[in-house]
Amino acid sequence: xxxxxxxxxxxxxxxxxxxxxxxxxxxxxxxxxxxxxxxxxxxxxxxxxxxxxxxxxxxxxxxxxxxxxxxxxxxxxxxxxxxxxxxxxxxxxxxxxxxxxxxxxxxxxxxxxxxxxxxxxxxxxxxxxxxxxxxxxxxxxxxxxxxxxxxxxxxxxxxxxxxxxxxxxxxxxxxxxxxxxxxxxxxxxxxxxxxxxxxxxxxxxxxxxxxxxxxxxxxxxxxxxxxxxxxxxxxxxxxxxxxxxxxxxxxxxxxxxxxxxxxxxxxxxxxxxxxxxxxxxxxxxxxxxxxxxxxxxxxxxxxxxxxxxxxxxxxxxxxxxxxxxxxxxxxxxxxxxxxxxxxxxxxxxxxxxxxxxxxxxxxxxxxxxxxxxxxxxxxxxxxxxxxxxxxxxxxxxxxxxxxxxxxxxxxxxxxxxxxxxxxxxxxxxxxxxxxxxxxxxxxxxxxxxxxxxxxxxxxxxxxxxxxxxxxxxxxxxxxxxxxxxxxxxxxxxxxxxx
Length: 498
Known about the structure:
By secondary structure, the chain is mostly beta strands. The chain has a domain at about 325-465. It has two helices and 38 strands. The strands form ten sheets. It has a six-stranded mixed beta sheet with strand order 25-26-27-28-32-31, covered by helices on one side. β33 and β34 (about 455-460) form a beta hairpin. The chain is globular and about 60 Å long. Residues about 5-20 have low confidence and may be disordered.
């Protein structure tokens, strides 16, 4: 009997070792009891002193929590929230998280608040930033997607910029407000892109250490939406806005160059407008594009459109189908992360997103209802080098129904953290599938990409009998990644990767 127990003990040790192959140091905090039963994380950040702050929302409250270096709660504040108040953006610098909400007490009235959580002093305050009147049912902030497009903080933390719509019945107009990030006093306010006909849709926003704002977006030729057929109904324009003046530069595209969105990256004081392009329509992807902007005279000094490498199609479709799929172009991908490695290289990660619907009949009653399914599927990864060329591209073949991954750079490598099936599926055609089967348990993985694009799949843990963590809501600061458990009870826990 003792021999049998010894054998089982040895097997359990080897099994535990096989379950955790991550090269990163993995630690879990002590479990703690939460004040409110909610998980809806809106902001999570860690200071250089290893103090972590988290802002969450429940149906009636906004929750502000502070945790020490061991991730033990040291401060908590619950703030009443009206159902007409909603989150619109957040910024982090030094010891402070700035959490912005807009309150709509009446159809035309909008009040913007800044909730400031100071993690070092464990204090909270709320201040009205400005109030405005809008046309009935118009939104003050546009660009409701996974990437924040209405708020930006200067690299030195001295200024933050806020972009709002000021659309009237007969006039499209847009406003930039720049504030002192410490005092919350407004430095200047500028209107731009005023036009009775043309509608502007922001793609990205950045502000320099001197308080100059760059707003990048689409200027529609007609109407407010993309027309059928996928041909571009807009031009891309980069707006430079300062206290003294406003300037702009149009990003010229050829007849067969279609781009859905662009993001701004600052590399060695040079602006790069990065995204994906298609030769067919704006909803598809043939390759990556990079427009380099000369700040001195605000002009496009270089433009590069580069096809996706074969490895992208091999990862998604396998070597048998990849060559045929190469000609069809990818579709439904939206940029989530734009990361830099300190050597001038830029990594762009985009996820495939689409919605399907299914009508469910009530049977004898003759009625029914629609069920909508949100798909967060494959991930596309491309790397631009310091010269603006596409260095390599890869992809992750996965399926999910909720935002499921996060990414960060550490020691020159790209880490993609996600939950998948207990064991990654190796297909006969060479693909590695990162998805959970119907009756399969899940595991937490770290996909590690080297500087040259080679990938290793490191398992962090099997989730069965362990705490389940949500990478999408994590944060990477001070060379470590922190994420929270998704338990629906009031008991919570953290995992740290470093």
